[in-house]
């Protein structure tokens, strides 16, 4: 495994320092085996579960069983007596009886039971150190683990809100191969309430944010700046500037009503948003929405405000006659349609090291790491240049054809391509997106790629206040469009293009280049020195039951270079 495997993943919902999994994938694979024993698998991870029914599977099952009973022994030792009865009688006591070491051991031996205990603990959690440590471990496991394979999720009864929503539920997986994909709930606009659910808490009120008003945009920026997604150790937090927010939240046909806030007095303390997008799931195109920027002020966490916000954004979207949505998250909810993994490529290794983002591998030295991540001074692809307005028709056409390679992808109109990819020179706003095309000798656009800026605040460093991260956005190349596709040629071309993207990002002073395991990325991530992060990004569809889509990683969470990914949707 690459030595940068300890790198903390700062992707959305991301998390704990990983390392063990990356250093010893075999070990992680065993530990992540389905402890429940009863479920044949759920969701996306079903795609690659070899060996079931074989002697190998029987041996695995036996090993799991023995781990499960070992885990119970740990618990039995701590609380004494009959473990099952003791847990049932008092789950809190069972948790509190474990020392931190025992918790660690228990978590690794039996994450499923650990999560069961945590769920049983529910909202009545006390502040005891053991419980907190346990909870922390469990959440890390949830956020970094192989979610859809069954153990890093709560049991369905604990998803009190999500159990009521039109999303595929855990425990109701189809075992019989591909099924007909369809909406889960059919409604009429006239049945949708025209007013929001009452907040019923003194001093709180619903607001529609007017993001054309600079002051209100600044309020959203401030809320996210202080309270949006952080890593587990609270070292980094996503930092969306006003110009990036404007780019994200005001795409073609955006609707003011879909920028929903809650105020306490005058203060904006919660937010959720959506923009319209056509979502293609295999052959069906759904007029849909992309939901993002769900954020609740830290002081209001754990009060079940998130379900209220989600219901409200659903209502305002439904009022437009739109019934489906796509959203992503680092946490496991019922039920991902796909699970992708974050990868990171250092561009300014020294800075990433100084802020604690990239550790120096034990067998290496900082100087070596700096050298390792040095990129060329100049790009190498002939005909490569920044995207211009005159290229938009060609890029629209090329991207449309390329995205057809994937099972889950947006269907962009030309004006959406313009919005998402064309940088409008404006000295008063920060540039959000960088796009490049390759123009052949005959003037034909043969390739296109883009990346966008997302900074993270560095919360605990005195030396640096933020990390400038480039995120790989959409790309397309004619070389991927031959019939049949020549994978080896595609791999060579993507390596050339992404190699140049790294050079361009470095010139723009980015510190790190991030990408997920989606699209055809498995063809270049390792070659371009991207290291696996510890975060996963789960893709969800609201009110649509779809067969799993390959996320570009296999059952061991390793890049799946053979099957690549069916995800062609890049979310901000
Ligand atoms: C057709 C139109 C449909 C439109 C809607 C489509 C769905 C859109 C869905 C939203 C897509 C958003 C995409 C993004 O923006 S992902 C980014 C999410 N934001 C952050 O991580 C920022 C920092 N964190 C926070 O602000 C809070 O912790 C949040 C707001 C995340 C939860 O606040 P809090 O910690 O105070 O929790 P609660 O007590 O109020 O509520 C607990 C309930 O909320 C469920 N929960 C927790 N986190 C998430 C999450 N990320 N997606 C969906 N549900 C989530 C949780 O399972 C539990 O339900 P259940 O387990 O009991 O069932």
Describe what you observe in this structure:
The chain has about 575 residues and is an alpha+beta fold. Helix content is about 30%, strand content about 20%. It has helices spanning about 20-25, 25-30, 55-80, 85-90, 90-95, 100-110, 110-120, 130-145, 215-225, 240-250, 305-320, 350-355, 365-370, 390-405, 415-420, 485-505, and strands at about 205-210, 235-240, 260-265, 265-280, 285-295, 325-330, 340-345, 385, 410, 435-440, 445-460, 465-475, 510-515, 530-540. Strands 1, 2, 3, 4, 5, 6, 7, 8, 9, 10, 11, 12, 13 and 14 form a 14-stranded mixed β-sheet that branches. β11 (about 445-460) and β12 (about 465-475) form a beta hairpin. α3 packs antiparallel against α6 (about 100-110) and α6 runs parallel beside α8. The longest helix has 25 residues, at about 55-80. Mean pLDDT is about 80; it is low at about 1-55, about 120-130 and about 135-150. Tetradecanoyl-COA (MYA) binds near residues 228, 289, 293 and 333.
Compact overview of the structure:
The chain has 572 residues and is α+β, with helices and mostly antiparallel strands. Helix content is 31%, strand content 20%. Strands 1, 2, 3, 4, 5, 6, 7, 8, 9, 10, 11, 12, 13 and 14 form a 14-stranded mixed beta sheet that branches.
